Amino acid sequence: MPGNTVSGFERRSFLGKVAAGILGTGAVTIGPGVSAVSAWTGAQTNSALNQARPDSSPLKIKRVTPYIMQLHRDSLTEQRNTHYVLCRIDTEEGITGWGDGSSFGNVAPIYTEIERAAQYLVGQSAWDIESIWQSIWQRRGSSHGASVQSCIAAIDCALWDIVGQKLNVPVYRLLGGKLRDKVKIYTSYRWGNIEPTREAYARRTRELVAEGALAGKWRPFRTSGQEPGLQVSQRTLREGVEVVRGVREGGPDFDICVEAGAAFNVPSAITIAKLLEPFNVLFYEESIQGGNALALREVQRSTSVALAAGERIKSRLELREFVELDAFRIVQLDAARCGGITEFRKMAAMAESHFMTVAPHNPNSPVCTAAHLHLSAAMSNFLILEEGARNPKIYRELFGSWEDSPAYWTVPEKPGLGVTLSEAVIRDYGIPFDKSH
User: Fold this and answer.
1) Number of folded domains in the chain?
2) Which CATH number is 305's domain given?
3) Is residue 425 part of a domain?
4) pLDDT digits (tens, 9 = 90+) for 410-421
5) What is the pLDDT of residues 380-427, one digit of tens each?
6) Strand locations in 43-127 (E)
7) Domain range for residue 120?
8) Distance CA 309, CA 330 (A)
């Protein structure tokens, strides 16, 4: 209609601008002045999509530095002299990412693996997370194991942290978005060193419930060391059942998580599982030594109690047999041990195909806790997160703010993982390599 027509010149001018944006030779805006909206195709725009284009910012890695940190914990979950291996990656444009590759007792080898990988990473793009993961995996193919996977984990988490910061979004958005705003946790060993009696455990559990705790883990079937043949003793069975009974009486709705520490043989593990059935425990963790999927399946098939395991499983290749055999029901993946966020996601998806849930193993630093919070928020088969040993003071310092709840933790909303290690923290909690263990 007259007055609504667009001249051929105007049409050609507009299409030319759009084409320029698509080809990366010019920006396109719609609207006048400061209210103009940039079209997503413009090479000079600042949209999230454009930031994600590899050619918009190379995000070149400038430096990769391993650190050994001793982060003190609170009195109930104190683990003196526990050393964490963290990795700091700096980009040329000034973004710093952090990752955790802790696997206790393996500090020096992991630290060395990160140093070895660093020489190949400098100059690469932090965008290329999968490519970097595969390159380290292939380069260290003859030495795969705990140290290599934890090295990859530390680097991988730091890269996700960098990309999240670059795009100005929390990592959970890169994982597909949140399914939950808060993450349920189970407290760790919060009963303390009390008498192993039914009454004492019932009383302490009532206190935990009054504090707000919904779930908790400890080791009720105590052993005096390496029992002959990993056979459970009658005394261990008797005392263990009594304290579990006490916890159930103290918390009728409390989720009981039983740790066995891989201390028993198959017949003993089955005996314990049968004794746990009347108490409707949430899970029975590491009932036997790891590595034998058929043996673990034998225990699982003998009981209605859900077996949990996975902290010793370092990759999807190791997990495959356990999943295919339905050897347990709950997978305890650890992002600091299994190859970081990248591998964790693949392993969680593999577990989901067999209707297994994931309860991340988390005795780690706040950096790995942050990674687990993002993963837990975005996982459809998430069950519960281990509280681990945490120091509220350190968590507040690294997260900026921290609600120390015994029931739920909130997911960080800051860009990246949401943790920052200041120079003061590095100085005050850093451990020299020759003093580490």
Assistant:
1) 3
2) 3.20.20.120
3) no
4) 999 999 999 999
5) 999 999 998 778 889 999 999 999 899 999 999 999 999 999 999 999
6) 61-69, 84-91, 96-100
7) 61-169
8) 7
